[in-house]
Amino acid sequence: SSACKPTVCASVPVALCELPAAGFVRCLGIMAYQTPVSLALMVGVILLLILTVGAVWAWGQFLDQYEHDPARVRAVMMIGLLTATTLEFSLAANGITYSWVAWASFWINAWGAFDAVLRFPASHDLASAVSAKQFTLLVVKTIMYAAGMQSLRKSLWIFFILLVTNIWGWPVFYIMALPMDPSEQVAADDTYDIDIAVRVWQLLMSRSERRDCIVRCRSWWFRRLAAASEGSSIARMAICAASPEHRRIFKKMGRSV
């Protein structure tokens, strides 16, 4: 070991020079590997924090403008949820996670995040069954991704990004989106503030529920078509060409088609 001190031990703790030759070489390899990994980890954490802060700021700017428009906020959250779910399936398709993770995450998203967006802007106490369900699903999803990465060591960065943005970032964005006025923190209709599993069961078992759902869907669709026709003459022409009923309605309203 004395022969190694002049050349190596100047930059290595003295205790390493007392190890056998094979152990000493192995320790050098570990140090050479861990140093760049630690530096990359530190840089990555800083970049992830910057991106997270930027996303929170951008979401806050959007909410400042549309705080009193829950339908628009709900639509944006739906688009975000669809994007996140698509990303999760792409991770499975590229061999980063197992396929069962994507499907399990899909059902967790449906019962958790999708249910919460449908209820928006309804608010629930932390001690409520709704909050307990959402928290439990987040914990399950975290454990599922930690165990469902095909190589957690190689995909550690992806796991951290999913953890911050796709799993625990959702409740933060949802809480930020809730109106400041408590009187606005209610669902537009009591039928929306029901667990989605209960709503699906009611649709399967009750003919009147299915009929009411069809009526609500038709009403929503007609409102969207009316809004599209008001904002674009091309959309109005397309709607009139596809639907004689809407063409008659527009004629009665005195709109040109």
What's a concise summary of this model?
The chain has 257 residues and is an all-alpha fold.
Structure characterization notes:
It is a single chain. The protein is about 75% helix and about 0% strand. The chain has about 260 residues and is mainly alpha-helical. It has twelve helices and no strands. The model is unreliable at about 1-10 and about 30-35 (pLDDT under 50).
- Tell me the strand percentage band: under 5%
Largest sheet: none
Shape type: globular
What Rg do the Cα atoms give?
27 Å
- What's the count of strands? 0
| Unreliable residue stretches | 1-12, 30-35
**SS element count, helices:** 12
> What class would the helix/strand composition place it in?
mainly alpha
| Order of H and E elements | HHHHHHHHHHHH
Tell me roughly what share of residues is in helical segments: over 70%
Distance N to C terminus: 92 Å
